[in-house]
């Protein structure tokens, strides 16, 4: 490919071979140093972000904070309604996104052929994954809140987040399905299986670890999603536990936004403490994803 | 995928349950298409409503945005410039960081080093963006930017602080896609260059980098698209002052920050401000969609496959 531009030893003025190797190696070393520096900057940023949040938030983390309700007095404020709101939204989101996402992936990978329509459907999924999440919020506001009439409720929030994470679930499931060797499919057909029997008994069990990992990681993403939920009305001062289908609600990241934008520094500490709770929930889900993958793929070998 | 038509089960009739399942799976797959069409219809409909009140020429060419203080002016370029300024800072930071990290992962690291760095990058990519906004507002600006630039020169909110954290946020995206495309360059090409006497850096610069260029370009365009659509970090760190400026030390308002500002307030749903929200969202959607399509096109057009 680029052989013509590869370094060619040039003859020096005296006619002898001068590859300037020392200089070229020095440039290489400097470049390697730059690579190391970039990784160092990234790791340092990660460290600073975590350190900032922990140092501000840990003093506020106590039982009162976890079980209390929001309050104008920082020392009495808690996140219980937001925590329950987040759990309700994320669980309902997962219950909706898992069947739709896996079904969609199975259709695209196992049922639809390789024609133009299928390719357009796949391109559409990858484009959807690039749509800013705030746009999904606007769509959720127009469709679920206004047209369908679910109002500013947990259910509208969960439906909106379902659309946000659906591309992630579909893409992860399709990768898992594609990794199943065709011999498994052919074996099932050879035993007389119908297409669905083949999918259910040969493809799904083998792809299950990937599918489960996909939905769990998507749930971790959903926990931190803020913008779409602001659009569908999760920004409210809520001192009671939210009902899924009626009444207002709030979620952890929006509680963070509320506290972080107040002038008093004590509330910034509360925001950092709520961030720690979000990060812990995400960490637990990531750990669960690793565990599930290891657990479910124990029996799979080919 | 190989599903030979001759591999059909020998039963003549397909049971009804088979058909029902296929229809259910098709309906699941249709959700994605319906979502896309729905988003376009909603944005187009509401934007046209807005354009019956505000001339699209004024909207797309105006550089003053005042949605809450009379006289109302809706010149979207004020928001677009804020958005592009933040995105440009983010890309300027993320491209060197991401590409150098990708080279390190693909060309220089042992699998042990990779097993430390990859999860760290994934962690950065997974941090909720509101956390990055919080970090910009209460750590980066007061503890790093103000001491360097001077207390008087940079305010609490700035395009620079927002751009830096968005840059950190999109770096893993560039690193991971570029690394994949560098790893896809066959060994033989590297070895050919080594055999010609190239140093490791020369191999990276003159062989690996050009061969992986389509993936690298695609990753940068995707990162720009991500940065333009980024919301919560920018809401917290960038400010709420729409202005047509290229000065990174100024407070700006991005398109996404305007959308959030309107929906946080008590704006009536039939007001002109609320309709402006949809017009801004439509503009944002069009910009990110175009970038995503360009990215797909770059991959398809310039992909070189090696046997």
Provide the low-confidence segments of chain B as ranges.
none
The shape of chain A, in one word, is globular
Tell me the fraction of residues in β-strands of chain B, as a range: under 5%
- Secondary-structure-based class of chain A equals mainly alpha
Please, what is the average pLDDT of chain B? 89
Order of helices and strands of chain A: HHHHHHHHHHH
Describe this structure in words.
Chain A is mainly α and 302 residues long. Chain A contains eleven helices and no strands. Chain A is 70% helix and 0% strand. Chain B has twelve helices and two strands; from the N terminus they run H-H-E-E-H-H-H-H-H-H-H-H-H-H. The interface between A and B is large, with 104 and 101 residues.
Features:
heterodimer; A: 302 residues; mainly alpha; 11 helices; globular; disordered N terminus; B: 307 residues; two-stranded antiparallel sheet; 72% helix
